[in-house]
Amino acid sequence: NAGVTQTPKFQVLKTGQSMTLQCAQDMNHEYMSWYRQDPGMGLRLIHYSVGAGITDQGEVPNGYNVSRSTTEDFPLRLLSAAPSQTSVYFCASSYEGAWFFGPGTRLTVL
Amino acid sequence: DAKTTQPPSMDCAEGRAANLPCNHSTISGNEYVYWYRQIHSQGPQYIIHGLKNNETNEMASLIITEDRKSSTLILPHATLRDTAVYYCIAKNNNAGNMLTFGGGTRLMVKP
Q1: pLDDT value at position B94?
Q2: What whole-number distance in Å separates Cα of residue B32 and Cα of residue B29?
Q3: Nearest residue in chain B measured CA to CA from A39
Q4: B73, B82 in Cβ contact below 8 A?
Q5: Is residue B80 helix, strand or coil?
Q6: Nearest to residue A49, comparing CAs of A87, A23, A12?
Q7: How close, in Å, is residue B55 to chain A by CA atoms?
Q8: How many interface pairs between A and B have CB atoms less than 8 angstroms apart?
Q9: Between chains, do A43 and B34 touch, taking CB under 8 Å as contact?
Q10: Stretch B45-57: mean pLDDT
Q11: Which residue of A16, A27, A108, B70 has the fewest C-beta atoms within 10 A of its own C-beta?
């Protein structure tokens, strides 16, 4: 199993641009989530999904959209990038309460 | 999720056991204790979890007190690669209950 994969690894955007961060898992996990981690800070939950077709907001959802059309994929869309969204983004999936994280996408918004 | 309290930082000599404490005095009966770690710039890594019995796997041991108000993660022979931030999280064993990360303990393993 590849586990949780994220693409791209690095991305630089200009203010106002939109983009989609990709996340995929091949473990058939029903639960998936997105976190962001600002420099020197802890992880904060953006959005999560408890199954295909079901998503919900986390602690910091503003400026982000998600969808879950398949069990495997959980993309995160930035609608109009802002410098405050400069962060490292982690995707995770869960089985029986234990969460498994991807390697992260490092996003810089200029 | 029950609130957890961890020391902000700890040092450990390479090859020695690292004992990381966690207080969770308000933990409820259906909440498990989970441990994760985050090595610099990587995604958090699941280590171990338990309800009330001590648990051991290839990475670590988890000792939970009888009253369940505190626990200790033990890395039996710490290596430099174990330098990381360690997070103790109390939550019920429902994957729909998302993780909430606190400050964790920054463990520095020194040669």
Answers
A1: 67
A2: 8
A3: B41
A4: no
A5: helix
A6: A23
A7: 15
A8: 60
A9: no
A10: 94
A11: A16
- Judged against a pLDDT cut of 90, whether residue B93 lies above it is answered with no
CA atoms of B72 and B88, how far apart (whole Å) = 9
Say what percent of chain A tops pLDDT 70: 100
Q: Which residues does chain B have within 8 Å of residue A9's beta carbon, measured at their own beta carbons?
A: none
Q: Which residue has the tokens 């994280």?
A: A101
Q: What is the mean pLDDT of residues A85-110?
A: 93
Contacts of B85 (CB under 8 A, 6+ apart): B37, B38, B104, B105, B106, B107
User: Measured between CB atoms, which of B45, B93, B101 is closest to A97?
Assistant: B93
Of A43, A95, A102, the CB nearest to B95: A95
CB neighbours of residue B29 within 10 Å: 8
What is the pLDDT, as a whole number, of residue A3? 92
Tens of pLDDT along B76-92? 999 999 999 999 999 88
Residue B32 is predicted with a pLDDT of 92
DSSP state of B5: B
Distance between CA atoms of B40 and B33, rounded to whole angstroms? 23
Pick among B41, B99, B101, B105 to test the A interface (most A CBs inside 10 A): B99
Asked whether the predicted pLDDT for residue B95 surpasses 70, the reply is: no
* Nearest-angstrom CA–CA distance, B96 and B99: 9
What average pLDDT score do residues B43-50 get? 94
